[in-house]
Amino acid sequence: MAQVKVTAAVAGQERLAEGIYSMWIKEETIASQARPGQFVSLYSKDGARLLPRPISLCEIDREQGKIRLVYRIAGAGTEEFSHCQAGDSIEVMGPLGNGFPMDGLEGKRAFLVGGGIGIPPMLELAKELPCEVQAVLGYRDGTLFLEKEFQAAGSVYIATEDGSAGTKGNVLDAIRENGLKADIIFACGPTPMLKALKAYALEAGIPCYISLEERMACGIGACLACVCQSKETDSHSHVHNKRVCKDGPVFAAEEVEL
Description:
Blueprint: E1 4-17, E2 20-26, H1 28-33, E3 39-43, E4 53-56, E5 59-61, E6 66-72, H2 76-81, E7 89-96, E8 109-115, H3 121-128, E9 132-139, H4 147-151, E10 155-160, E11 167-168, H5 171-177, E12 184-188, H6 191-204, E13 208-211, E14 227-229, E15 241-243, E16 250-252
Parallel strand pairs: 8-9, 8-12, 9-10, 10-11, 12-13
Antiparallel strand pairs: 1-2, 1-7, 2-6, 3-4, 3-7, 5-6, 13-16, 14-15
């Protein structure tokens, strides 16, 4: 599966919540090859910003040849993207990275755990998994987004830090409060959440796959700007590192040190 770098058309964009936007991009080649858990790199039109911005795939519409990106404004690059409208052009490279493993899950129960802007990458996985989906979504407050889309794919449980919606606390609090059980965990979100889920999975004796959120530069594994600590020696750098953009962003939890 080779990535392509093309100038694509913006099919539409809307604001989902304060600082969070949903953009559909028309790009048939990327849409046909992409898998849940992968990402694309978007390029700014400002020549002063040379490095692309990595954004996870939220949805993949292979029939229409479109991909959906849901992202948070985090700087000048994503601020620029938020002003794109239908018909505008944008330079995109993808699909990049690996995806979530999906084989051998028939008849099983899965936790799909997303925290904050780690929620969008879990939506396409929820739609494609061949098993029972239990989405556990963590938000800062009651300003929710994408929860209705997840409800169409499985059962949804909400946790908010301030208790304004769902369980007051974090995603593990929601799992315990609702007495939920699963045979496998897929997760994306802030490092403290992933670290806690890794420990939970180890204690429960179930496999856990996590998608890491790291600052990436090149997006193709050349610059080593997004390495994380690993148990095994990396074949590229020959140290105990993994390149999140190339070897990940999805890893078996036991592969990486958090």
